[in-house]
Amino acid sequence: MAKVYSGRDGSLLLAGTTLVKVTNWSMQADVEMLEATTLGDNQRSFVPGVQGFSGSASLIYYKADNGNIDASTLLRKVVKTGTGGVTTADLVVLTLRLADGNSFSDIGMSAYINNVSIGASVGEIVTAAIAFQGTGALTAASV
Questions:
Q1: 3-state secondary structure of 3
Q2: 3-class SS at 48?
Q3: What is the CA radius of gyration of the chain?
Q4: Phi, psi at residue 28, to the nearest 5°?
Q5: What does 61-98 look like in DSSP terms, one character per residue?
Q6: pLDDT score at 128
Q7: For 49-69, how does the pLDDT look when each residue is reduced to its tens digit (9 = 90+)?
């Protein structure tokens, strides 16, 4: 019988370890199409160009008491102060995973977290939304 995946099967790993509590993630891949039409052509033609990856995730905000990477540590990679008021984001190694027992479908990439949104509501768990931009080629793509 075919395996149907649910959110229960998903996880987000940092540097190969599941440390951040995530409620959802998504990833987009695209490739730019470059026009290769020449003078005298009657139809446009295209060739594949540069590939890119980006995505987002929602994290449960918490601080770990054992020194592991947690949501607070991850958010500080982009929300930080600097002497000039502007600092660069830190590069992170992300793996988006779907698990089927001990078998994994992974999408791995080096990425910059380029957007953070955090909010709190009475009677709700504090969550933070992040957006990330991949850099370079994927390190894993077994979906």
A1: coil
A2: strand
A3: 19
A4: -120, 140
A5: ----SSS---HHHHHTTTS---TTS--PPPEEEEEEEE
A6: 85
A7: 999 999 999 888 776 666 555
